[in-house]
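Journal club prep, notes for RB
We'll compare a predicted complex against what the paper describes. Inputs for the zinc ion case:
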Amino acid sequence: MYVDVHAHLVHPAFAGEEDAVAGRAAAAGVEMVVVTGLEPRSNRAVLELCERHAHLLPALGIYPVDALCKLVDRSSWQHPFPPPERFDVEEEIAFIDSVAGRLVAIAEVGLDQYWVPDYPREQEETLRKLCAVAMRHDLPVVLHSRKAESRTFAVVREMGVARAVFHCFGGKLNLARQIADHGYCFSIPPVVERAEAFQALCRALPLDRLLTETDCPYLGPDRDQRNEPANIPRAVRAMAAARKIPEREMAAAVRANFRRTFGR
Ligand SMILES: [Zn+2]
C-alpha cells in the first residue's frame, strides 16, 4: 500500500537495528523501501541488507559531497559532518554499472551548492556519468538538488533521463511546476506534517507527480526524533490533508506513480 523511495537504512543511526526497522516498515503497511547508497562502503552495505528483505530494494549512487572526495580541502573543513573518505570515483561508477541489473534506481546522485559550493563542474561530471549508467540500464535516478535545483534539472533534462525523482525539493514552486511538466516526480518526506513548504509543494503539483520518501534518519515528523520508513503513512495523511482529498486516494496515486517510475 505505501512506498518509501529514499531511505538511508545504512546509517550509523540504525546500526544493529536495520532488520527491526525493516520489520516495523512492513508492519506499518510499507510495501517497498528503496534503500539508498552514498559512496563505496554504504553502496555495498545496501546490497547486502536488501538481500535479507524482499521489501527492501537497492539503489546505489555517489552523493555529490562524496563525489568531491579527492578535491575538498580537509584542513579548512568546518561542516557538522566529517569530510568524505577518499575513493576512486571512476572505479565506483564502474562498480555501480556492473551491479545495475540488481538495482531499482541510481541514487543518491545530484548537485549540492549548500555544503559544497565549490567544484560545480566536477559534481556535474559525476552526475552526468551516473545518469548515463541509469539510461543504459533503463533505471530512474533519485536526485539531491540542494541550492542547485535548476541546474540539476537542466543536467538531467539535457542528458535525456526519462524517469527522475527530485527528493526533498527546496526550490521555487514555479520551477517545481516546470520540472513536473517535463514528467519528473517529487518525493515528499514525513516532515510535511509540520513543514508548510512541503504542503505547498503537494498542492502545487499534479497528483501524478507525487511520491513519498523518508530520507531517514532525517526529515521525520517529530522534532529531534529519528525518522524511519514506518512513518510513511503519516506523510500520506499530511499530503492528503494539504490537498483536501481522501487519504486513500492520495495513497493510491503515490502507489501508481511508484509503479510508473520504478516499474514495480
Ligand atoms: Zn538522502
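Talking point for the session: The pocket of zinc ion is lined by residues 6, 8, 36, 108, 215 (CB under 6 Å).
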